[in-house]
Structure formats: structure tokens, C-alpha cells
Design goal:
266 residues; mainly alpha; transmembrane helix; 10 helices; membrane; single chain
């Protein structure tokens, strides 16, 4: 008596299938969902708190200084949310290296780079939608709290500031993804991201000569601020030049991460 061997059809590895796998993986990991929720709550919560205190001479407002305009008040939580979204990006890449899950991913997708592109696609879609919704809620509800002194969507630069906030937070998360894949260390990547986005400009302003002070505007944090600022400070980049510079940093880091993934062992 003989038994016939049953061979199951093997599906070809394609980018859409890898994206679907990363989508399932994103929502299956509890830390991803929690970090995403924390980022949204930080943006909305601090924005509503600052908006409720806006214009009150007896209140100093939340950490980070008192906002100088109603739009800035409602988006006060941007820096806090940016760090959370950046941490989420780091966890999606460096976290897999620390747990060893990356070996399974790369075994299933031998060409390697589709895994990175799929992670980027999933992360960008989820984070941009979440950040845009949170920014819109923070701005709309914040202006309602401010009242007559508030701004409206039709005011010059407002739509760019609100939508640009979502763009910058997504870009910060992508920087985190790139640093995580490049450094393969969660603490190291988070520390580097924090230093680049929150400390580098301050340190550079203190240390570089006055003749080189114009270079500060080309740092990632300053370029991002130029894109989201309601009014441009003297000597700052124009909004679209700021976006181009910031996007250049994101592309460079992602490119370096792709090079290491392609060239080095898991």
C-alpha cells in the first residue's frame, strides 16, 4: 500500500503579501498599539490643556513654554507626541532584532529589502492617519476652548501648520525606523533620535561660531519647525525648503538602513 504525497501550493513572495504580513504584525504587537495610543493622547491632551490656559496671565501653561499664538497653543503636544511616534518607529525595527523575530522575517523574504519597504508603508499609513486625526482634533477643539481669540482653518498658514504637524510626526517616526534598523539597538536608536530632534539644535547654537550660525536652520528639528510654523522667524528656511531638508534627512537615514540590511547578516 502506498500513500501519495500531497504538495501544497507555495505562494510567491510579493510586496503586497509582505505588506499584509507587516500589517498583521503591527496590530498584533501590544506595544505598537499602546505607543500609538499614547502618542495620540499626548498630542490631544497637551493641546487641550494649553488651549484652556491660553491668554491667562495667571497660568504658565504646560511644559515647553507658553505658546505665542492660538495655533501653537493647540499643538503644544507636538514634541511629546513626536517622541512617542519616533519610539514606535524604533520598536518596529530594532525591536525585531532584540527579540530575534527578524530572522523569521528575513527567512520568509530572502531579498530582505521588501521587509523594510513593507514596514515603511504600513507605518506611514497608520501613523499619518492617526497623527492627522489627532492634530485636527487638537486644533479644532483647542480653538473652541480659546474662543474669540482663536484661529480658523481658513486663516493663512493654519492648514499647513496642522497637516504639516502630522507630516513631521510621521517623518520623525520614519527616522526612528531607520535608526532602529541601522543601529539594531532600541535604547541606542531612541537616544540618538532624541538627541537629533531635541538637543542637537540647542547644542549647535551654543558651540558653533556666529559666522556659521546659519547652518542651524538646516538641522532636522529646525527644518521641521520651519515647515509647521505659522509665521517664519527671521533667518529661518521657507516652509517648503524646510520640508525638503527634513525629508532629505529621512531619506538618507532610511537609505543607510537599507544598505546595512542588504549588506550585513541578520
Amino acid at each position: 500500500m502506498t500513500t501519495a504525497a500531497v504538495s501544497l501550493p507555495r505562494k510567491r513572495v510579493s510586496l503586497p503579501r509582505v505588506v499584509k504580513s507587516e500589517w498583521i504584525k503591527f496590530w498584533s504587537v501590544r506595544s505598537s498599539v499602546i505607543t500609538l495610543g499614547v502618542a495620540v493622547l499626548l498630542l490631544v491632551g497637551f493641546g487641550l490643556l494649553a488651549s484652556s490656559l491660553y491668554g491667562s496671565p495667571s497660568q504658565g501653561g504646560p511644559p515647553g513654554g507658553e505658546p505665542t499664538d492660538p495655533v501653537g497653543a493647540s499643538l503644544t503636544g507636538t514634541n511629546f507626541a513626536m517622541l512617542a511616534f519616533g519610539t514606535l518607529g524604533v520598536l518596529l525595527t530594532a525591536g525585531e532584532y532584540s527579540t530575534g523575530m527578524i530572522r523569521s522575517s528575513m527567512t520568509a523574504v530572502p531579498k530582505r529589502l521588501p521587509v523594510l519597504w513593507a514596514k515603511i508603508a504600513v507605518f506611514t499609513g497608520v501613523v499619518f492617519v492617526a497623527a492627522l486625526a489627532a492634530s485636527a482634533v487638537a486644533f479644532t477643539a483647542g480653538q473652541a476652548l480659546i474662543g474669540d481669540a482663536g484661529a480658523s482653518w481658513s486663516d493663512p498658514g493654519v492648514a499647513r501648520a496642522v497637516i504639516g504637524t502630522a507630516v513631521v510626526m510621521t517623518g520623525c517616526g520614519l527616522l526612528g525606523m531607520g535608526l532602529g534598523a541601522l543601529m539594531r539597538s532600541t535604547p541606542g536608536a531612541i537616544t540618538t533620535l532624541f538627541g537629533v530632534m531635541f538637543l542637537l539644535a540647542m547644542v549647535a547654537a551654543l558651540l558653533i561660531p556666529d559666522s556659521w550660525s546659519d547652518l542651524v536652520q538646516y538641522l532636522p528639528s529646525e527644518a521641521a519647525d520651519s515647515f509647521t510654523a505659522l509665521t517664519q522667524a527671521e533667518g529661518a528656511l521657507s516652509p517648503w525648503a524646510g520640508l525638503s531638508v527634513f525629508a532629505g534627512y529621512v531619506v538618507a537615514v532610511i537609505g543607510a538602513a537599507a544598505w546595512r540590511i542588504k549588506r550585513s547578516d541578520v
